[in-house]
Amino acid sequence: MTPSGKTVDVALSQLRQALSTLESAVDGRFERERAQSDVEGEVRRVHADRSRLAQELDQAEFRANRLEEVNREVSRRLVTAMETIRAVLDR
To answer: How far apart are CA 14 and CA 22, in angstroms?
Structure first.
């Protein structure tokens, strides 16, 4: 083989190695972008869950407050009824 033939073979070998390295770098980049996309999707799901849970908590607090109001009203009525019964029994 001539010196120029060896030079071409060396150049082709280096080109193949450079292409292989480039391919690996591109594959790595795609993998990182895929992973980043997965993380962003998970963050969106967490925010959606948080919003839903906050809304459910607000509704539960509203129901708890309403039940507390009803409980006070029932208690007041029971006291009134007991006082009325005592008044009737005392006669």
So the answer is: 12
